[in-house]
Each structure stands twice: as structure tokens, then as C-alpha cells.
Predict the 3D structure of the following.
Amino acid sequence: MSDSSAVDTVTTTGLVALRDVNKHFGDLHVLKDINLSIGKGEVVVVIGPSGSGKSTLCRAINRLEPIDSGLIMLDGQPLPLEGKPLARLRADVGMVFQSFNLFAHKTILQNVTLGPMRVRGQSKAEAEKHARALLERVGVEAQAEKYPAQLSGGQQQRVAIARALAMDPKVMLFDEPTSALDPEMINEVLDVMVGLAKQSMTMVVVTHEMGFARKAANRVVFMADGQIVEEAQPEKFFTDPQTKRAQDFLSKILTH
Amino acid sequence: MDVISEFFTEYDGLKAFQQTIYLTLLSALFALVIGTAVAVMRVSPVKVLQVIGSAYVNIVRNTPLTLVIVFCNLGLFLQLGIQLANPNSPTSIDDNNFRLAVLGLSVYHAAFVAEAIRSGVNTVPLGQAEAARAIGLPFLKTLRYVVLPQAFRGAIAPLGNVLIALTKNSTVASVIGVTEASAVMKVMMENRPDVIFVVFGIFAIGFVILTLPVGILFTSMSKRLAVKR
């Protein structure tokens, strides 16, 4: 697989496509003319300094953050503005949050079955069977009857991944999934994510984990001040960044 | 202390307190339903519903309860002819007054229930609703399965306060002729002005017996059912 052709094919067959997307928070212009296309099966890592708009970009893709102008397409369809069509679209987009956001009043198993039962209309038995298989896949099947507060952060985040996978999403969004974790728990979550990437899940991952980017990403998107400054294959980006901004950023995080 | 035995025999004080309990429980039930609907309107993304919800709370909560109850009788029944009981039944007048009182108490306390639930909604982190929306739950299902179950648990203590207030406020029903506890108290006081403090004490103790366990129960429930985060 030659480096450049991989990028080319995915940009032309975009499962997720952003065109001239702009977003403001008051006076702050957080997303500036963002153009990005993510192909089916592609793993895109978004990195950049804090406040660069990378989380907002991630949240805009399932419209948890509405945008001011531009167009976001998912599987060839523009994002619906609100209501039932938007809810239906979100069912196809898995999201993993920095702070896990597991439903605190539900058991681990109920967390995973809620969407399939209430959105997809699956029977309880069917949803639980699928949920237990997913919990096993992320290695927390023994915790199925516990409540989120009884689990470690790493376990909670793996449950959150299972909860998103239970909807059979077309694409998975990860918004800094390891930033709230203790260091010794980061790898257990990254391992699950690497496994997903190997099974050709389409993924958008906002993270600072360079190891994950090198191991699993097809492409690194570097953002600063609300703009996409540089896009490249991970190895090329980390060893030979083209822009001053990216060189600066990498020198700060790689020196220790 | 023959007045105490008179309370049980001649005045049928237990029956009066039974009426108080019925008034309270029925009104609490309806207030919970109306109050939940109003709270949902206030947290909904639809502007019109928000305005209606907050108008309801602010108008009702700032109107004296006596006015609300009297309006139910003079306004709804005598002026508009709204009957809540079968007019041909022999207990029609009593039933009608009782039901109008339940209506007034429910509508009035729903405003406070709505505020208690809204405070409960505020105890639920935003991330919970975001996670629910992210798996594709529409607004009402997000509320029903994720936000409200946690909000109710966070609202148990303030809801207990509303229930205690409702129990005591049910005495206002006497102004439209419902023979609950305070109505009987007035009769007893008129007949036995010599032992007015004893009469007063009997009814005060009666209300404490009703409300004290409610307070204890709701406090312990609010701790036991708290959502662990």
C-alpha cells in the first residue's frame, strides 16, 4: 500500500464529509472553514493544542454541537437539523466521551442494552445477548450487573465503547477517550480501540496518544486555532511535519 | 379530659383526618403528574413550551392557595357550572366540593413539584443527556429513560417538603366546605371554648403524626436512592 494512494481513495469515497464548516462560540471562531473527508474503514486521528477546536469538530459530526455554516454529510446524506431524523442519524454514529458518561442509574448491562431496545426496538433477550458478547469483547463481562460508579475509569470507558458498538454504528467518534484516565488504565482502552481499527471500523479519534496514532491511524489531522493546518500519514507527520505550527507543537510534546 | 373522648366519638375526628389523608394523597398524585409535565415543558428545547411552563409556575406559585380553592368553588362550579360529581347522587355536594378541593390543591402544588423536579434535573450532569442523544434517543426518550429517573432521585428531599406542605395546606379545603380535620377543629372550638388549647393541641398533634414520618421517610429515601457518580 503506497502512502499517498491510501489518502486519495478515502477522500473520494467519504463516509463522513465536512465542507466549509464554520462555528463560533460567541466571539470565538472555533471552526474555520473546515474541509475534511473520512473514508469507510479509515481511522483518522485529530490532534492539536487545547482550544484548537478538535473536540468541537468531533462533536459537530453527530451534531451535539450545531454548526453555523457549511455542510456535514454522513454516508451521502446531509445531517438533519433536529428531531427524529437527527436521532436516527445519531443511532448510526457511535460516540465515546472523555468523561465516559455512562448512565449512572443503570447497570453496565442496562447501559449497553438501552439503545438497542429503545432505539432499535430489539427484544430484551436479543439485546442482552449482543451486549454480553460486546462486554466480553472489551473485557468487562464480569462487571455486567454492577453500576458505573463501582468500576474503574478504564473499565467504564470500555463499557462506553461497548455501548456505542451495540448500535452497530457506521462510524465511531472518540472525544479524548483517554484524557480522564489514570496512566495505567490508558492502554486497556487503547487496546480495544486498536482492535476496532483492525476490524476496519471507521473512526475519528481526538487524542494526544501518539502511540495509538502510529499504530492504528491511516491519517493524522493536525488542528490549531480552529483550522486544519496539516494532514499526513502518521509516520510522516511525526517524523517530518511540514508546517511551523505542527513542528512547534510536536517539539513541545515529544521532548519528554 | 372528656374533650378527647368527644374528639373520637361525637366529632368523629378520625374520619376528619381520614378526609385530610385522602385529600393529601389524591392531590399529591395529580400534582406529581401535572408538575412533571410542567417541569418537562420547562426543560424542553421548544421555546413556546418553556414559556408556558414558566408562566404556569410563576402565576400559580404566586397566587394564594385560598384564592385558588375559592375560585374552584365559586368560579368553576357556581359560575361555570363545572360539576365533578354526579349531581343526582345523594352525596353530590360533598363529593363535588371534595373533588374541587383536590383539583385546586393539585394545580397549586404542581407548581412546587415542577420546581422540585427541575432542581432534580439540575443534579443530572449534562453528559448524561448527551450520551443518551448520542445513542439516538429522541428528546422524550432521553428524558424518560435517562434524565428523569435520575432527576426524581435528586428531587426526593424537596418533593418531601412539598408533600408536607400539601398535607398542611389541605386545611384550606375547609373554606369550601370539605369536612377535613381543620373544619372539625373549628366546630369543636366553637362548642368547647373552655378547652380551646386542648382542642388545638389535639389537631396539632394529629398533623405532626401525619407529617413527621413523611419527613423521615423522604430524608432516608433521598440518601438510599441517591445516584452514585
The mean pLDDT of chain B is 94.
